[in-house]
Input
Amino acid sequence: MADDRLSPSEARFAELLWRHQPLGSGELVRLCARELGWKKSTTYTVLKKLCEKGLFQNRQAVVSACISREAFEARQSRRFVEDTFGGSLPRFLAAFIGKGRLSARQVEELRRLIDEHGEE
Output
């Protein structure tokens, strides 16, 4: 898996792109100046980095996503479980829950997810 972790400024920029895409590059520069206080050069530098990470593309001066926000977040979550818990979802859940308790609704939702995504 490519290293697609984002710095805080890259994450703000990506969020802006996902919210407004597809976006002409000139419109993107104006949006970043207004929303992030960035100059044109900063916008293009960060855009280039996110394009290299495979998150966005800039084709014929139109910027669009190569991956949805949801797919990116899922990939980041899997990476976190892999890096922190050796890929063990049960270890992650045990750490997440800690000494707390799950509500009956949360338990039912987890059962439903396991049933939907478990092996037959």
